[in-house]
Design goal:
Pfam family, one: TonB_dep_Rec_b-barrel
Number of helices: 10
Shape: globular
Keywords: Cell outer membrane, Membrane, Receptor, Signal, TonB box, Transmembrane, Transmembrane beta strand, Transport
Organism: Flavobacterium flabelliforme
Largest sheet: 22 strands, antiparallel, barrel
Number of strands: 44
Membrane topology: Multi-pass membrane protein
Helix content: under 10%
Distance between the termini: 28 Å
Subcellular location: Cell outer membrane
Length: 902
């Protein structure tokens, strides 16, 4: 037996030593690294692809031969005799299947380095191994020049799903694709003081980072190529296709609770006054040096299918992140980031059917259980002392379920036409539950938890795409045609009765406020000399923190969309490329639109390319913007007071003369260049984006004169025209000296958005879209952001140091809702209400060491120097000492990660 065990041990040892690791860079004949080159160990299914810089790393057997293949280039073979093998591919020949298509072009021979539009290629494996960021939004925030995302607090649903934007436009003006197929949006619409207020968006955090091979960001208008939502650009997420390797990570991190600021004694979540999360949200507990403890466990594994490049790749990911708590006022003791517990599964598969036909499928399921504090209730009719002595801080929790599935066939005819037929389905469900709360009108009999209802959005998309490359037409012509049919469905479903109803003293839901008596408490501020001073204060109904959706709010609406497109790319000469696209779309609920795009690229010399484009674009109003509604009922001795966020098709909306929502219309122009000199590359692109009829959420209007049973009303409208001008810059230098690898990257964005026109018609401008509303819109487009990243690698050791500068942001606080007479003039009121968050630099540091070929340990810190915003004000939207700005408000985050691969 001992001999047998020894034999097994020796066999395993010999197997391990028979393996060797090969790395290198694959370039074209101009010296530019090629992303997505397939590298296969000949005679096996073991393979990898190059990253965005053309670099690769693969483990092979002794005596192996590597095969390098890439679209439009001849296959190259190299014997694996050295540990470093650099390859230059020549542009001849090519392959049929497994071609790499970069977003922004339907020409499979087009690469990111010679495209006519700006494209970022982000290798997620590289980014995640050199960063402590847990979610996709956080990753892109620090590596993509014009991508911005915010953590929110006190913004209901937006505390649980981060709104994000590209080039300063809305979250719903960037189209998201997965493997080139349209991704469904979240059912959440941002409402309460968030960036992207009035917008829906795609929840990128529902996609596990470990399932992603690379992210392609097309920073250019692309509605003519890909359809609605692509005004700002396109984010294409390419899923992992690795096989025969198990990779994974285990990460733990926590935030430093030492918030920097000037806080009065007794401020919640300062030393000695930390909120006790096990209490009722209004009591203090033990001090903590760290909070927001986060555990993330992820694994990815792929298996080969057949011998013709087929594969099935699977990812699973678990995340558990606790709340962060930061200094807040008495009315907002739970200020901080939400807690998240989530589980992801994702899969990506390709099965070759013949030499020229393959079946593919991908999809997954994301579940998140989130938990965030609402505003604190300290006294008054909202507090029932027998349940919560001294008050309470209710919690808004949610279950978010996101599912998706895509499947299709790709083939090539004998005539060279490539055909792709696919169907993609996705659904987002957002279900609210309020906890640590009460329905005050039930007084001591109130439950402390409620099902508050929620909303869902589903989308099904069928695509038919054809393309063909004519290599003999001038220097190459690529034609593409296609059709898309899409159905969308939006639902709002009611919560349990206690979450929305107001009860009378007999605990019956109030249907007639004139005959039913509402529970009340004595008014401590009652003044007999004041006829408007009530003797009692009625107890409000509905769950505190987040009143549930009622049956009157319920929505079940759907629509269809049919689109047809054609595009072409012509290499007139080796140096000059012209491309164009035209797309027709017809929606069942608002009509048709036709858009076009023209782009060009000129190779000035072997080192410099000049590129530019002009396009028209559009974005259809989302179903949520058309049909979303909220109705709140407040009761007093005089009767009922109704506040309504009115859907676009309601009588209230029509009575104010507000028209049916139409598409947003855009004109997008860009001009830039790329440069490549040895180890140095640069891209600089300027842009102008004019958007007409942007859909926004108005302020409140007096609806009493209409006599329709509501006192105040609010709407979604095609309310403003905006003009955005900016500049994206990416500069990179990489150098290898002996065993030392150096890298320096500067990414930056300069952005200037102006509101050209507020389309209020005869309605009062300040109520329609006032200064405070403008401030939220403009804050979504910060003036600039720059990131300077240093990377070093030597054998088993690597290090990264990053400096990210976030520009000044100005927001208008709740002082804008005060009486202007208190400030002397409107200009003085605006000045007093303006909160200026000055520019800040955030420093990130990471250090990694390979313990073996299969294991790596990494430690690091995000926001190493614990930098906080400098503006402090109790009038801000979130109720804490800071508003939600790009740099965040949780301070330094320290982490350790163990990575493994087998």
């Amino acid at each position: 037996m001992k001999k047998f065990i020894l034999l097994l041990f020796l066999l395993n040892v010999s197997f391990l030593f028979a393996q060797k690791e090969i790395s290198g860079i694959v370039k074209d004949n101009t010296g530019i690294g090629l992303p997505g080159v397939n590298i296969i160990e000949k005679g096996t299914s073991n393979g990898v692809s190059t990253d965005s810089n053309g670099a690769y790393k693969i483990k092979v057997n002794e005596g192996a031969t590597l095969v390098f293949s890439y679209v439009g280039f001849s296959n190259t073979e190299r014997a694996a005799t050295n540990s470093t093998i650099n390859v230059t591919l020549s542009e001849e020949g090519g392959q049929v299947l497994q071609e790499v298509q970069i977003v922004g072009s339907r020409n499979t021979k087009r690469t990111v380095v010679n495209s006519a539009v700006p494209i970022d290629i982000i290798s997620v494996k590289d980014v995640t191994t050199q960063s402590g960021k847990l979610e996709i939004n956080e990753l892109l925030q620090y590596v993509a020049p014009s991508f911005n995302a915010n953590k929110q607090s006190g913004s209901d649903g937006a505390d649980h799903v981060d709104p994000a934007s590209l080039r300063g436009l809305g979250p719903d003006q960037t189209l998201v694709l997965i493997n080139g197929k349209r991704r469904h949006q979240s059912s959440l619409i941002n409402l309460f003081g968030t960036r992207g207020r009035g917008n829906t968006g795609t929840d990128l955090n529902a996609i596990p980072a470990s399932s992603i091979k690379r992210i392609e960001i097309l920073r250019d208008g692309a509605a003519a190529q890909y359809g609605s939502d692509a005004i700002a650009g396109v984010i294409n997420i390419v899923l992992n296709d690795d096989v025969n390797e198990l990779t994974g990570t285990v990460t733990y991190g926590a935030f430093n609770t030492n918030a920097k600021g000037d806080f009065p004694t007794g401020t919640a979540n300062t030393k000695g006054y930390r909120l006790d999360k096990n209490g009722n949200g209004n009591t203090f507990g033990k001090n903590q040096s760290f909070d927001g403890g986060s555990v993330k466990v992820a694994a990815n594994y792929g298996v080969a299918i057949g011998e013709k490049g087929g594969f099935a790749n699977f990812t699973t990911e678990y995340i558990n992140k606790n709340k962060t708590l930061r200094p807040g006022f008495d009315f907002r003791k739970g200020f901080g980031e939400a807690a998240i517990q989530g589980f992801n599964i994702f899969a990506n598969m390709v099965i070759p059917i013949s030499d020229k036909t393959e079946f593919y499928a991908f999809g997954g399921r994301n579940f998140r259980d989130t938990d965030a504090y609402a505003f604190t209730r300290t006294d008054g009719p909202r507090v029932v002392e027998s349940i919560y002595p001294g008050g309470f801080t209710p919690r808004i929790t949610s279950n978010i379920i996101d599912i998706s599935m895509a499947a299709g066939f790709r083939t090539e005819t004998a005539g060279g036409w490539k055909i792709d037929i696919s169907n993609t389905y996705g659904k987002n469900l957002f279900h609210y539950y309020t906890k640590g709360t009460i329905n005050a009108s039930l007084e001591g009999a109130s439950p402390t938890e409620f099902d508050a209802g929620g909303h869902s959005l589903s989308q099904n998309t069928t695509n038919f795409d054809l393309s063909k490359n004519y290599s003999t037409v001038m220097n190459g012509l690529n034609l593409a045609f296609g059709a898309e049919f899409r159905t969308e469905k939006f639902n709002i479903f009611a919560g349990e009765e206690g979450s929305y109803a107001t009860y009378d003293i007999n605990r019956k839901p109030i249907t007639d406020p004139l005959t039913q008596t509402i529970p009340s408490i004595p008014n401590p501020d009652y003044d007999p000399a004041d006829p408007d001073s009530p003797m009692t204060l009625p107890r409000p109904g509905g769950s505190q923190g987040f009143p549930g959706y009622s049956p009157i709010n319920e929505v079940d609406r759907s629509r269809t969309n049919l689109s047809l497109y054609t595009d072409a790319e012509l290499d007139i000469t080796e140096a000059f490329l012209v491309s164009g696209a035209v797309r027709f779309e017809n929606y069942s609920d608002f009509g048709s639109t036709l858009n076009g795009k023209l782009a060009m690229r000129l190779k000035a010399n072997k080192n410099i390319n000049i590129r530019g484009s002009v396009s028209t674009g559009f974005r259809a109003p989302s179903l949520a913007q058309v049909y979303y509604n909220l109705r709140f009922t407040n009761f007093s001795s005089a009767g009922a007071t109704e506040v309504l966020l009115s859907p676009n098709n309601s009588p209230v909306t029509k009575s104010f003369g507000i028209q049916k929502l139409n598409e947003e219309k855009a004109v997008n122009a860009s001009l830039g260049f790329t440069a490549n000199y040895g180890d140095f590359t640069a891209t600089v692109d300027g842009y102008i984006i004019n958007v007409k009829d942007r859909i926004v959420l108005t302020g409140y209007f007096d609806a009493k004169p209409l006599g329709i049973g509501v006192d105040k009303a609010q709407f979604f409208v095609n309310g403003v025209d905006t003009k955005t001008a900016g500049l994206d810059v990416v500069l990179a230098w990489k150098k290898t000296i002996n065993d030392n690898k150096f890298g320096i990257t500067l990414v930056g964005n300069i952005n200037d958005m102006k509101i050209d026109k507020v389309k209020n018609g005869n309605l009062p401008a300040n109520a329609f879209f006032g200064e405070r509303d403008k401030g939220f819109l403009l804050a979504s487009a910060p003036n600039n952001k720059f990131g300077l990243n240093f990377n070093y690698n030597r054998k088993a050791f690597d290090a990264g140091l990053a400096f990210t500068r976030f520009s000044e942001v100005k927001l208008l606080d709740y002082q804008m809702d005060e009486d202007v007479a208190d400030y002397g003039s409107f200009a003085n009121q605006v000045k007093a209400a303006t909160d200026t968050y000055s520019a800040k630099i955030v420093t990130d540091l990471t250090l990694g060491y390979k313990l073996s070929k299969s294991a790596k340990i990494t430690i690091g810190a995000n926001n190493l120097l614990n930098v906080y915003p400098d503006q402090q004000d109790d009038w801000v939207e979130g109720g804490g000492y800071w508003d939600a700005v790009q740099m965040g408000f949780s301070g330094a985050y320290y982490y350790a990660r163990l990575g493994f691969s087998f």
